[in-house]
Structure formats: C-alpha cells, structure tokens
Amino acid sequence: MAADAPATAAPSVPAHGWRSSKLPDMKLMMWIFLASDIMFFGTLIGTYLIYKGRSLTGPYPQDVLDIPLTTVSTFVLLMSSFLMVIALDALKRNDIGKFRLWTFGVAFFGAIFLGFQVYEFNHFVDLGLTLQGNLFGTTFYVLTGTHGVHVAIGVLWLLSIVVASYVRPWTSKDATNLEVAGLYWHFVDVVWIVIFTLVYLVDFVPGAGG
Amino acid sequence: MAIGRRDVPAPAAPDAGGGLLARPAWTKGIGSWLTTVDHKRLGILYILTSFTFMGLASIEAFIIRLQLAAPGMELVSPDVYNQLFTMHGVTMIFLAIMPLGTGFANYFVPLMIGARDLAFPRLNAFGYWVYAAGGIFVYSSFFLGGAPDVGWFAYAPLTSLSNNPGNGTDFYMIGLLIGGIGSLVTAMNLIVTIFSMRAPGMTMMRMPVFVWMILVTSFLIVFAFPPLTIALTQIVFDRTFGTLFYVPEAGGLPILWQHLFWIFGHPEVYIVILPAFGVISEVIPTFSRKPIFGYPVMILSGIFIGFMGFAVWSHHMFTTGLGPVANTAFALTSFVIGVPTGVKIFNWLGTMWGGSVRFTTSMLYAMAFLFMFVIGGITGIMLAMPPFTAQATDSYFVVAHFHYVMGGGALFAFFAGVYYWFPKLTGKLLPERFGQYTFWAMFVGFNMIFMPQHFAGLMGMPRRTQTYEAGIGLEIWNLVSTAGTFVMGTALFMLLFSVIYAFRKGQPAGNDPWDARTLEWAATSPPQHHNFDEQPIVTDRDAFWAQKYPELSHGDDGSQWEGVDFDSHGIHMPGQSWYPFLLALAIFIAGYGLLFENWPLSILMLVVLTGATYGWAFEGVGGHHVHPGDDAAEGAGD
Fold first, then answer.
1. Is residue A58 part of a domain?
2. Size of interface A-B (CB pairs under 8 A)
3. B291: which of B160, B241, B528, B583 lies 20 to 30 Å off by Cα?
4. Do A13 and B184 touch (CB under 8 A)?
5. Residues of chain B with pLDDT under 50
6. Window B:414-453, CB contacts with A under 8 Å
C-alpha cells in the first residue's frame, strides 16, 4: 500500500513524532519567552520613567551618568551580536573551529560588558548613588541590574555551548540550539539599546532632561 | 494509574550524555509520581492539588460566614479575620480555580489535538511542582508567624515593612513569585504544543473550542504575569533590601502598585474564565447533539476578550481619582468587553436551540453556569459605570458580583467539566442521579450565599470588615447567606463522596459514554500511556464525531495523508526525570532563604538550582519508543 502512495507529497515525520509547525519547538518557545520578557522589561522601564524626576535627593542622573564610557560598553555589546551572527553562520557551514571561536568571542564580549557594569556600579556607589538612597538609585539599579543578570545568564549559556560542543561534538544539525541562544542574545542587546536611550541619552538631550 | 497494558517497559539502556542522577524508570509508587513527565498524570496532580486548596479556601470562607452570621460576633479577632479573607482570595484565585483550568488543559489539550504529550514534558512537570511549592509556601505562613492579611491585591503602602512588620506579606509576595514561574512556563509550553503538535489535518479552525480558549488564556498568562512578577519583586526589594519603590516619603507612588497589579489582575479574570468558557463549549454541544453554533464567532470573541482584557484594568480604580477622562475611557472599554461575552452566551443558547438536549449532571452545571454568569455579567456592567462604582465600591455588592463570575461562572463550569470528563480520567461513571441531587444542593446553596450579598452591599455593608452593627437591616441577609454555606458545604461533601464512590465502585464508562465529539473520546478510558495507538487523522471540526458519523461530515476525506507512516519510528515516549522536582524543591527552599534573609541557604539553593539546570540540559530528552500492536497479533496486519 505504501508503495503506490505519492511519495513526493508525503510529509516527513521526525522521530519524536508528527509536527504541525515548521518552526522547531525550541525556537517557538524562545520567541514566546522573549514576548514575555518584553513585558518584564517594559514594566521595569515603565517604573523607571514614571519615577524619573521624582527623586527628592541627589545624586541625579546628570551627576553620575558617563555617556562616553557607557557608549564604549554599548558598542562592545553590539559587536557581540555581530559575532553571534557569524558564529551561527560558521556552525551552519559545519566549520566547528570557527563556531567555537566566535561563540567564545560573544561570551567574552558579554563579559567585558559586565565588567564595565561592575565598574560603573562601584563608581556610582562612590558618588553616593545607592539602591536605598533615592528613587533614581532604586529604579536605576534594579532595571540595569536585571539586564545585567540577563547578560550574565547569556554568557554562562554560550560558554556552556562551547564546552558542550567538546563533550559531544556538534555539527550543523545542532544549529537550532545555537540559534535559540542567539535569539536570546540579540534580544538582550536590543533591550540594552532601549535602556541606553531612555536612561542614559535622554538626560543629555537639551530640554528633555528631568 | 492509566498505564496501558500493552506498554513496553522502559529499556534499561542509559541515554547518551548521561547525567548526575540516573534516569528513573518506575511505573508505580511514589517515585513514579515524583518523576513523572506524563501530561495525564500531571493533569491529575493539578486537579487533585487544586481541589485540596479549594477545600482549604472553603474552610476559610466557612469561618468568615460563621463570624458574619449575626452582628457583633466574636468568633475570630479582626486580625485573624484579615488573614482569613486574604488567604481565601489568594487560594481561590491562584491555587484553586486557575490551576484547575491548567489541570484540565494539561490532561485534555494533547488528547484533543491528537498528540502524545506536551512539547516539553519535563518543563510541564517542573510547572506543576513549582505551583505546588508556591501554594505550600504561602500556606506554611500559618505556622511561621501568621498568614498574609493585606487582601488578595495587597495594596501598597499597606505592605511596607513599617506598616506590616510580620512575615505574612513576605509569604504572599515570595509565594506568588514561586507559583507564577509555574504558570508562565506551563502557558508557554501549552502554546508551543498547540501550534506545533496538532494531528495531521487539524487546522487552527478545526481545533476544539476548549483548545482555542486555552491558547488565548496561555497568551494572557505570558503577557499578564510579568507585570505582577515585577511588582512583587519591587515589594520584596522594598521589604528586604530597603529600596524605595513604594515609599511615599521618598517620592514613591503607591498608586503604581495598583496599576501594575490590575494590569495583571484584570487579564487574570479572563485567565480564570476563558478555560471555563472552553469547558462549556465542549459540554453544551455534546449534550445538545449539535455542533457549536457560530464556531468562528466563538473563537474570535474569545480572542477579542483576550485583547480587551488588557485595556480595562483601571475600572478597578475608579475611586482612586484618575479623573473623568480616564474613568470615561475605561468605562467604555469595559462596556465593549461585554459584547463578545454576550455573543458567547447567545451562541451557547443557539447551540442548545433545536438540539436534542440531554439533562445530565454535567449539562445542568453548564446551564447553571449560563444563568449565573449572566447575573455576574449584569452586575459587572453596573460596576463598569464610574458613578455606580462610587456608590458600591468596597461593599458586599462587589463581593456578590465577582463570586457570581468566579464561583457561579468559572467554578460551576469546571464542575460541569468534572462530571463530563471523570469517565475519561478513570474509566468509571459518576453516579448520575446522586449527581443531580448534588447539583441542586450546590445551586441552591450558592445562590443562598451570594444573592443576599447584593442587597447587603447596596445597603452599605462594607467588605473586609470583621463585623457589623445590629439594627441597620443587615441581619437577615447575612443570616440567609451563612445558612447557604451549610447547604453548599453539604453539596461539596456529596461531590467528594460521589467521586470516591465512583472511583471505587463506579459503573464502567466505556470509551465514549456521552457520544461525544472530540478526539479525547477516541482514546481508551483511561487513556493508555501513549494516548493513541495510531496517529489520529483529522478530516473535520469535531474530529471524533466525523469519524463516527462520516455521513454527517462536511470535511475532507483525509486522502492527502494516505501512505504517510506517522509512527514509522514507533511512538516516542519521553523519559522520566528527577530534575523538574529537584529544581522546584531548590526554588521552594530558596524562598525561605530569601524570606528569613538566610543568605548561606539562599546561595546554596542557587548552586543546587544551577546544578539541576545543567543536569536537566545534559540529561537530554531521552525516553523510548513504543510500538503498539507489535505484541498484538490482530493489530499487526495494518
């Protein structure tokens, strides 16, 4: 019976069972998680903006924020996204050496960004901006800290991928695993662009400061 | 339970990658339940756990009603009374009715779409355990210094450390944070399952309405829980680390909590009610022997309700002084959301119209749902008018309103679901005649409790107040209301008794006792571990009905699937795992570490959590393949 069936039209059935969507489950899952994460960051950014200019005591944003310094760390984070793209491309071409190198590069750049953030937090505390000091401190640290935790998880994830690719050698068939991590990484990057704009840059636009 | 006779035992061969913990392979005993990833077992665990919490919430409600039976009673102190109504609300919303919907979704969504499990079985197990952990965490507060006493919405700055120095508020905040993780991951899991694992031929517009409503609900959870999670975290930070989010002296805005809470809280109402709409949309067509009336309109109404659910939150805040423009806008959106809800009511009536209606217990609950949900909806439209809310806010009128929606609405719909699906869950029928007595006791009891509260509320009786004065006309309404709790309490015991009785001695149900329409009835009762021996092929809406009565079907003939061997690899059954349970346990203990500011314990649990995450990731999906029919000679010829 199977012999005279139109084999060309027959859909392929993977070993884990029939799928009605062409998108791999993991990738769909990540998209939904990111949709949810938008609401997490949206709430934190909303809280920051609502409380902007309501601090009763200093230091205020203009007193502590250092645009040139954060521009550098922002640039590093953006470049890590570029490395992410070529890492995935390398894995899809089955160039395992390059895939490991660039994936490690993404994690390394992410770690540099985190280093900047640690320096920045220390420096701000020295300038008198604390979690408990005023509303700017409270909302700033919780918002950027949450983003930092996202970056740290991403770094850990990408390093784990590099290690895992030695434990059980990866091939281009594993590209979905990296792509899902990449989706997460790009998202965390985009969130930083929003934070950098709304928290850092806005305060230095003439007339828009609060 | 529910392990099919023909299941092949899991092979002893270890999976590639391995892990810290050996993959368990029990099929019986407590270990098999702690490590299960089977959506049916997890569904049963959800249902049993939520009914347990419902029992606790009912006891709290019973004590509240006894306290209010007559003016000036001193059964419980105002402090204990505050704890009781807070815990009653928190339990019913977060730990009873919402997870009951999740439980039905867990059990029946894969069966209804012709799948063998959810897309991420271990994540599903984790979702259950972390929900149970959150519930136990909140309830442990009774033994650790007092339960939360700030109302289920916990308005700031009532929750600040200076206003509320006890641990109760921390139990509320951290407990809901823990439970919220479970709701989120399970919602995401269900969305992927519904998009990705529908049987061949089951297009989106052929899905059962229940599955559609679960899809909409899951999206609501995905978008509504983050604002709550952040708001809870802000309070935890305020109380634990001294941040200033809701400290008015430092410029903080307590009203922000109300906005964040209700941006979650109103969608939450639909998170509770939409699965109930789904259940009703399965029960009424089955017992009317007609397809659902206006299927596409039903679906679109559900989606529209989901969208609008995010646009009405400030109607909970009409009396906070948002101003006439905001009040008018939110009044209008609240009126608009009544339209798709009304469409659904008329479509259910249209389904019954001209059908050959069978008045089973399940159908009686469904019809009572229609009646009482309309009452709750009408009072809802009244409360959507700001001038009326200004009069009725914080009164028993509001209490009556939301109990008609949540209790007479959602809960009665789920009771309809219990009577409808119990035969599928257990293979036994619930006693029908006794069920009808139970229904009438439930219906009369419920209306005795809550109908008088409308009048007490309109006469000015305030909510959340431990007692009331004699001689202002409130005695009779409260006495009737309290008397009603005895009737409804009896009904709940009757329900419990009939479930236990049927489980032990019930009549065998067969696979399809109701001549039903959807695919879960094509499986055995209870379904085998792998759900279906063969991949079901869907040719029409009401897929099982179309299989049974092809002459009544207007779908396709399924010929495009001919020759495709869907189970050529056998049926993949995911392996059991310790990690979901372990991960939830670590989060549970870390909650106490955070609450008691025991940092070594918290850090230790963070380490365990990270380790378990790696164990989970490197354990892999694993599992084995089942080949039903291989050992049965009669099935081999297919």
1. no
2. 141
3. B528
4. no
5. 1-18, 631-638
6. none
